[in-house]
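Please check this:
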Amino acid sequence: MIRIIVLYYSRHGTTRNLARFIARGVESVDGCEALLRCVAEISPDEPAPLDPVITLDELKNCAGLAMGSPVWFGNMAAPLKHFWDQTTALWVSGDLIDKPACVFTSSSSMHGGQETTLHTMMYPLLHHGMMLMGIPYSEPSLHTTQSGGTPYGASALSNDKTNLSSEESTLAKQLGKRLATTALKLSREPL
């Protein structure tokens, strides 16, 4: 059984729901287990996270990673960035090199910065030597979605809701399945 981490930060719940659908996609692949993890809040005034806070050891030992954040002014949220700023030891040792990864996001408006946020989450993963994957256009919902989903990663439009559209949830599950399938292949085939 290989472990895929689904790491997220969520303020209002939409990104957390995307994480859960990605985890369902991961677990649809035999031999793969999804670990839902979040990052710690920076401000002590924020409520405690709903899922366990990730440890560097968990990240080091994962077979793959899905990472998500809500859009914050076109960037990943500060708590997620703060976490990555603490991963220098993993970067120096190369623990994440050649592991597959993907990203996901949510925003309050369709043009609120989803794609730029997905890109900002890719940068630390690339620096760690991870192999990024998105959603290929062979996924039919990517052609018809009216609310979320990009070739760069899963996305959702929150609009004061936390429930995902059928297209958003389908694309999130497919991204999780693709990540898990790739991680499983890589774990069986030495590079």
